[in-house]
């Protein structure tokens, strides 16, 4: 069967072609490619140019439909938000660093003890905002206002994550859950991922150097950001990360295929991880 | 292929992705396009004006736009939504590009749209690149050419690029293709090889 149909069902209307292609089941062992001259004989197209143009109308229509369907997946906006958030972090940090360097260069008496720590930067910005040159003050204000926007965005990400990926959020919190999905590419991809991959998302560098050179394998990637993992005692951290990753991919499947919170699953998963943490104490 | 003072170009309306123009022709940069790199390394690479091309992994449509300048028509398959939006923009301007939003590992889904091709050009970042090419052989005319741009890092990171290259050539030969030439695309693209085969 070809895109323009067969038998009595023959047309080149984009919507009808799209419906035909969706249901088509082509047996590739018996497949013979289309011949545009057949479409011409059927009176569907005048010439070669017309054939390609008519076909294009349909394929562009199908592509647009397909793209629209992809962006309707509810995780799409959440992922853009997380990526914007992470990008803002980078920009804020870079600008802050640069501004501090600038300030130091014109303030010889300045002590370097504030440098390097986040708390230091937080104290320095208002100080530059007060004592710096006019342009410094302006930039310091911009950075502060961007930090505020960032904080608001972070809250929004957490809030939306709880509704879009409720089970994953219940295990590691909305922000970390959203970051995990963002790195995977989509919730659909996360739902098909093995736990061992989930465990090392964000530690790709360490993972590939492990595969190539046999250095120790990474225990955790982005998951480390969750308190359960980074507060776990060193000896059980790997354990906890592995168990949590296994539960996270189950949660991703629940979120993707069912889309609602499964309180029983979450409680049992949390209890299991807490037991692991207790066991070693 | 058209070249001006040793620079590969294509004839056609410019401004697709901010490419430079030389003498009214669009410069085809070997560092951006693997097919252009192949021409710089092997000047016998050609696209004839009456060819129908099946292009797998069309991405944003930059290389596709150059191919379309040379050949009769291009069927361009791409799976990712974001690049597909760019490809559609290109296809709306160039009337001989048929954009297909589909997964190249599932050719049976879009088989009813395709004609027999003189050239299959494949540039996909997938582990089973030879397998994808072989699945598309029913679309390739007898005597037609398969140009496979092998991204060795996508196949198996544990194997060396050379090993992946050799394995892929062997797999293609076993599927009834005659490997005409195979070469690395350095210095233009790292760990990428071009394999040109003929369907017997």
Automatic annotation (TrEMBL), chain A:
Source species, domain of life: Archaea
Record-annotated membrane-spanning stretches: none
Protein known as: Nop domain-containing protein
GO molecular function: snoRNA binding
Source species taxonomy: Archaea, Methanobacteriati, Methanobacteriota, Stenosarchaea group, Methanomicrobia
Nop domain boundaries: 164-278
GO cellular component labels: box C/D methylation guide snoRNP complex
SUPFAM superfamilies given in the database record: Nop domain
TrEMBL record, chain B:
Coiled coil stretches, renumbered: none
Keyword Methyltransferase appears in the UniProt entry: yes
Any Gene Ontology biological process: tRNA processing
Pfam families: Fibrillarin
EC supergroup of this enzyme: transferase
Molecular function GO labels: histone H2AQ104 methyltransferase activity; RNA binding; rRNA methyltransferase activity
Catalytic activity, EC: 2.1.1.-
Residues where S-adenosyl-L-methionine binds: 62-63, 78-79, 103-104, 123-126
Membrane-spanning parts: none
Alphabetized UniProt keyword annotations: Methyltransferase, RNA-binding, rRNA processing, Transferase, tRNA processing
UniProt similarity note: Belongs to the methyltransferase superfamily. Fibrillarin family.
Assembly, per entry: Interacts with nop5. Component of box C/D small ribonucleoprotein (sRNP) particles that contain rpl7ae, FlpA and nop5, plus a guide RNA.
Record function comment: Involved in pre-rRNA and tRNA processing. Utilizes the methyl donor S-adenosyl-L-methionine to catalyze the site-specific 2'-hydroxyl methylation of ribose moieties in rRNA and tRNA. Site specificity is provided by a guide RNA that base pairs with the substrate. Methylation occurs at a characteristic distance from the sequence involved in base pairing with the guide RNA.
This protein's name: Fibrillarin-like rRNA/tRNA 2'-O-methyltransferase
Lineage of the species this protein comes from: Archaea, Methanobacteriati, Methanobacteriota, Stenosarchaea group, Methanomicrobia
